[in-house]
Amino acid sequence: MSTDLKSVAEEANERLAGATPQEVLAWARETFGDELVVTASMADGALPHLAAEAAPGVDVLFLDTGYHFAETIGTRDAVASMLPINLINGTPLQTVAEQDAEYGEKLYERRPDQCCALRKVEPLNRHLSHYKAWVTGIRREEAPTRANTPVVEYDEKRDMVKLNPIAPWTQDDLDAYITDNGVLVNLLQYDGYPSIGCEPCTQRVAPGEDPRSGRWSGTGKVECGLHT
């Protein structure tokens, strides 16, 4: 464990608890420089947009699992072309075909945790190893498992500082930022997909349902493992 990074995270969380996302990101860029990376799922371009304003040229990591909706890939490409960011397309060690050959087809149906570990968690860990701090778009209201998310925390598993600058935001806050700044939104958001993951494991959600209820529906799984 890095005592220095742990103390940096604890002190920053106390100092930045009421800060705006822009202030949190500006502090992160000043503190970590090029050793800062932003992760983005491309459900929308809000986090990359915030990061580009606070830290132009910042690395933005997208985990390309091989199972994404075409709309998500399109959002990724559009965000990368419109914002001053350095997009990193993180891929698994195996293609989908190679994974199918080794583990059998549709591993996501039989062992979704293993599929996520291979196609999301391993690539994330491999790419994060080059940095000291990473930024997520987690919001507290998204799920009970995220309700106590701090703005800045120490990621003990990876020995990094983890920043969640929009953790306090409600859906209304996010929507207002998107509208006010003309931020790109994944078209699936307008088609009943408030939470977007890999295509085989994401279903439409009825109005009024938990926004994440369409993820791994019927499996009892609620997180992909990136934040647990």
Automatic annotation (TrEMBL):
Subcellular location(s) of the protein: Cytoplasm
Binding-site residues for [4Fe-4S] cluster, renumbered to this chain: C115, C116, C198, C201
Coiled coil: none
Root EC class: oxidoreductase
Domain (Phosphoadenosine phosphosulphate reductase): residue spans on this chain: 40-203
GO cellular component, one term: cytoplasm
Keyword Thylakoid applies: no
Signal peptide coordinates: none
Catalytic residue list: C224
Principal location listed in the UniProt entry: cytoplasm
UniProt GO BP: hydrogen sulfide biosynthetic process; sulfate assimilation, phosphoadenylyl sulfate reduction by phosphoadenylyl-sulfate reductase (thioredoxin)
Alphabetic keyword roster: Cytoplasm, Iron, Iron-sulfur, Metal-binding, Oxidoreductase
Iron found in the keyword field: yes
CDD domains, per the entry: PAPS_reductase
NCBIfam families to which the protein is assigned, alphabetical: cysH (TIGR00434), PRK02090.1 (NF002537)
Family: Belongs to the PAPS reductase family. CysH subfamily.
Name of the protein: Adenosine 5'-phosphosulfate reductase
Annotated organism of origin: Kribbella sandramycini
Name of the gene encoding the protein in the UniProt record: cysH
